Amino acid sequence: MTTTDWDSLADTFDQEADHGLLDPVVRAAWARRTESWLPAGPSDVLDLGCGTGSLALLAAGQGHRLTAVDSAPRMVERARAKLAGTDAEVLVGDAARPPVGDRRFDVILARHVVWTLPDPAAVLRHWAGLLRPGGRLVLVEGVWNGTGIPAERLTALLAPLTERVHHERLSGDRDLWGKDVDDERYALVAPVRGTRRHTEVVDVHLILRRGPEVLLARRSGTGYADGLLHAPSGHVEDGEDVRQALIREAAEEIGLDLDPAEPRVALVMQHRGPGGSPRTGWFFEVAYDPARPPYNREPDKCSELAWYPLDALPDDMVAYCRAGLEGYRAGERFLIHWHEDGDPIAYEPEGERRAVVLPVSEG
Fold first, then answer.
1. Looking at residue 24, what is its pLDDT?
2. Domain total for the chain?
3. How many Cβ atoms sit within 10 Å of the Cβ of residue 78?
4. Do residues 11 and 132 share a domain?
């Protein structure tokens, strides 16, 4: 369904008991269920495909810290209005790849979302990676008139991620729906098993050189570091090596069609964002070609592209990227850049430097 389709439904969703929770009996029934699915103490909850924010409001009212994501701007407007009296953050974004950066959560809550995903197994793996150790997935799904995802199939998809899945049948609870239903409706609560081996996200960064200048992009509308400058960059996806990922990101973000022989490894840096998990970034240098000028291919995520002197970088940058470019300019090859939890994402001219240079063997 397109964003326009979802927007057209926003007005009707609040009129349906199982979405708007306007009926006090329905609302109380969902509140009881939500309370049983979520941790006893205040926790960080990510509500994906939040719609108009009904479940997020219930969870926030139970003392949890909510971040909610929906792809439809009209839905997000309604959710923000509904959650205005709380500390909840509501973002426009894809539930499959929520725009939360390095942040990690105690619970991921998704209602009637998994059945819409073209590759639910891959998305569930990604969601599991957004959870802190001991975190859980709370998935409300069903099958309506032959449409949806059966509990048996979703349980099988969760098997690689968890040692147990708690199944709750919801069809028999009339109060949840405001009527009797005879189709399959259920909730699965799946604690994600602890990772035995350390794993990290791998990302790639393009240092596009035009003589003494480098190209930077200003982030916008992503929900993470918006308004700050960063090199064109992105995550390595399943099945890619770092060079393939860089070539794909360069094409997607700035319309640059790179030959595999062009990128040169400039720097490798392990990084931890404030409150996030470690990741490893590969910085690649590519020479500017006047015959192939870069342009902004993602105006919904980038408000501008501009060239800046490498020896006089602007201050309004993501600290991670700034540290990488400074290390590159200094001729370093391997860095560790480790934020403390209270550090800002943005570079601070007078702040403490977090980059540590790793010496290279003479051999």
1. 87
2. 2
3. 23
4. yes
Tell me the pLDDT tens digit for each residue of 308-337. 999 999 999 999 999 999 999 999 999 999
DSSP-assigned beta bridge partners for residue 229: 218, 317
Do the Cβ atoms of 52 and 14 come closer than 8 Å?
yes
**Which residue type is seen at 23?**
D
Task: Quickly tell me which residue has 């069809």 as its tokens.
Answer: 171
Q: Which residues make beta-bridge pairs with 218? A: 229, 304
* Residue whose C-alpha is closest to residue 151's, from 135, 129, 168: 168
Cβ-based burial of 287 (10 A; exposed 0-12, middle 13-18, buried ≥19)? exposed
Number of H helices and E strands in the chain, helices first, is 10, 17
* CA angle at 293 for the pair 238 and 334, rounded to the nearest 5°: 50
Question: What six digits make up the tokens of 23?
Answer: 């009926």
Assess contact for 107 and 190: CB atoms under 8 A: no
What's 134's domain CATH number? 3.40.50.150
Convert the pLDDT of each residue in 184-234 to its tens digit: 999 999 998 764 456 788 999 999 999 999 999 999 988 888 999 999 999
Rounded distance, CA 295 to CA 298, Å? Answer: 9
Q: What is the pLDDT of residues 296-306, one digit of tens each?
A: 999 999 999 99
Q: How confident is the model at residue 150 (pLDDT cuts 50, 70, 90)?
A: very high
Q: How far is the C-alpha of 196 from the C-alpha of 225, rounded, in Å?
A: 31
Where in the sequence is the domain holding 89, given as residue range(s)? Answer: 3-191
Q: Is 175 helix (H, G, I), strand (E, B) or coil?
A: helix
